[in-house]
Specification:
Number of strands of chain B: 18
Helix content of chain A: 55-70%
Oligomer: heterodimer
Shape of chain A: globular
CATH architecture of the largest domain in chain B: 3-Layer(bba) Sandwich
Radius of gyration of chain B: 22 Å
Number of domains of chain A: 1
Structural class of chain A: mainly alpha
Largest sheet of chain A: none
Radius of gyration of chain A: 12 Å
Distance between the termini of chain B: 32 Å
């Protein structure tokens, strides 16, 4: 089953809801950096990477962390990885 | 059975089940790592722990949890740490302080969890210094504690750029040093900034049932994630080969192996466990500051005596001296008075008995040299001395209540006790004076966390465990 970019964005939103339950993830703008819309720091991004691995078996090497900056960049980067499984 | 560990291999071994070790363990367990925490004692918590005596529970360490912010405050250490540990804010059961004060000869400054109140107090007591104080506060608010750039590294020097009255300088240093400085006389300005923020911009709080609430929360979280913990499991040696730690030898003689080791035993203490280091390694970085604390249990609430403050940082000498005690067992000229009852626990919630804790600096070597009879006699003597000082500083008891008539129990810990339970050389509560901020050691797979990594207070200790686990084990994994 092929994942769409929207589905991958939803997966990332679900992870953020889990690791930062006090942040409001409704109405996030896909093109805008997540850090500009929510109070997330580098430790939180580490958790997003950790959950992608634990829940979906997706590996994000450290040099690729910048690819997770916005929802759009997340789906650009992660969708091929999900669909390669 | 410790022997069941023999020949086991773990991805990460954590030495010490204090706040830092437990927090690091939770992070690694969250990531699905095969992790074990080894603790020499039979209780978790390290220097923030608790014990029972005659059916009564006593706290060690925690007077107040610093870094308190109300629920929902963003971007602060407490919020970050709860998120990283996936622990809900309400689970800590924090109640904010009433009011605290810094009491010097003929001068007092009150403070609470609202910085504006402290500001007003400084303006009242030191009207000529208030502009400098505000400039200092602004600088401390914004500076990067881990990269001071062109600013002085001496906190005294940094402060003197803003504040010219030595009394105000000492009054600011007194609580900041007592709540976390391992250095004598002065502090690193970055460390000062971290402490200043945690005490004055953020604030004090406490769970009604004390530090055991926090320790239990961490333990339960770690266990629920499948983390393994072995108590009464001391470490004899860390065997090395080249630049790597290879085998961990336990007191029981069992040996285990690990890809990585995070030690919360202290910088010098950890080095001395390693087989490639001399027994007296790093002797220039041993902490020199140890403390004694008396605990008195009362059959009345402190407020019934007219004692409403939460914490009182006091100094009775002309200049405040934060340094090793040279020629006596205890230096009663400065210290900290704490009433654990005096937090805003809410309607109908209060500790059943009154508690008074008094902390002062003490000489480790002298306490440890005493034979058992002398030790007990000196404990009794210094308990009385510290109560005398305390009663001299507190307002006269209301209704002529006699303190001694209302005492149900007393206890006291000394540097000897601290040494026994924390394993810190010299019983140095705040560890080594030179902190190892990146947590690296002479071995490439052995890291430090906790007191000697340089985050301060219990929130700091937990953040230290988190950040060292993140940086050295999880990042780029």
């Amino acid at each position: 089953m092929t994942m769409t970019e929207d589905q991958v964005q939803q997966i990332v939103i679900n992870i953020i809801n889990e690791i930062a339950p006090d942040e409001d993830t409704t109405g996030l703008k896909p093109e805008v950096n997540l850090r500009d819309q929510m109070d997330l720091d580098s430790m939180d991004f580490l958790d997003i990477v950790m959950e992608l691995r634990k829940q979906h078996g997706i590996e994000v090497p450290e040099e690729d962390y910048p690819e997770l900056a916005s929802l759009k960049s997340c789906s650009d980067y992660l969708t091929p990885k999900f669909n390669a499984e | 059975m410790p022997s069941s560990l023999d020949q086991q291999h773990y991805e990460t071994v954590i030495i010490g089940a204090g706040m830092a070790g437990l927090a690091a363990g939770i992070r690694l367990a969250l990531a699905g790592k095969n992790v074990i925490i080894l603790e020499r004692h039979n209780a978790s918590g390290g220097l923030n722990s608790f014990y029972s005596q005659a059916g009564r529970k006593f706290d060690v360490g925690l007077h107040a949890m610093t870094n308190y912010v109300p629920k929902g405050t963003k971007g602060t250490p407490l919020t970050k740490l709860l998120r990283q540990l996936r622990i809900p804010y309400d689970a800590l059961d924090l109640s904010p302080q009433n009011c605290s004060r810094i009491q010097f000869p003929e001068c007092q400054l009150g403070f609470n969890n609202e910085f504006a109140f402290f500001e007003a107090e400084v303006a009242r007591a030191f009207p000529k210094q208030i502009d400098g104080f505000l400039a200092l506060a602004e600088e401390v608010r914004t500076l990067d504690a881990f990269n001071l750039g062109s600013m002085p590294s001496s906190a005294r020097k940094a402060l003197q750029r803003h504040i010219s009255d030595p009394m105000l300088e000492d009054m600011i240093f007194c609580p900041v040093m007592y709540y976390g400085s391992a250095q004598e006389h002065d502090m690193d300005y970055g460390q000062f900034a971290i402490m200043f923020r945690s005490l004055f911009f953020e604030g004090f709080a406490r769970p009604l049932d004390g530090v055991r609430v926090i320790v239990k929360l961490l333990q339960d979280k770690y266990r629920s994630l499948g983390g393994i913990r072995k108590m009464k499991c001391g470490i004899q040696k860390i065997h090395t080969s080249g630049d790597k730690a290879t085998i961990i030898e336990l007191d029981s003689g069992a040996t285990i192996t690990a890809d990585k080791i995070i030690s919360t035993a202290g910088a010098v203490e950890t080095a001395r466990l390693c087989t490639d280091q001399p027994f007296d390694a790093e002797s220039n970085n041993i902490g020199q500051l140890s403390f004694t604390e008396t605990i008195t249990v009362l059959d009345k609430q402190p407020t019934e005596f007219g004692w409403d403050d939460t914490i009182i940082f006091f100094n009775t000498a002309e200049r405040f001296r934060y340094a090793r005690v040279e020629d006596d067992l205890v230096d009663p000229s400065s210290g900290v008075i704490c009433f654990p009852n005096n937090y805003q626990y809410g309607e109908d919630r209060q500790l059943n008995e009154g508690f008074l804790r008094v902390t002062a600096m003490a000489n480790h070597d002298k306490w440890c040299a005493l034979n058992e009879d002398d030790y007990l006699a000196q404990k009794s003597h210094w308990y009385d001395e510290l109560q005398k000082v305390t009663l001299g500083l507190l307002p006269m008891p209301k209704k002529n209540l006699n303190f001694d008539d209302h005492r149900l129990a007393k206890d006291m810990f000394t540097p000897r006790t601290v040494r026994k339970y924390t394993g810190h050389l010299n019983g140095a509560i705040y560890g080594a004076p030179n902190k190892i901020k990146d947590g690296r050691t002479h071995l490439e797979n052995l890291y430090l966390a906790g007191t000697d990594q340089g985050f301060l207070g219990i929130v700091g200790a937990m953040l230290s465990g988190i950040s060292m686990a993140n940086m050295h084990v999880l990042q780029g994994d």
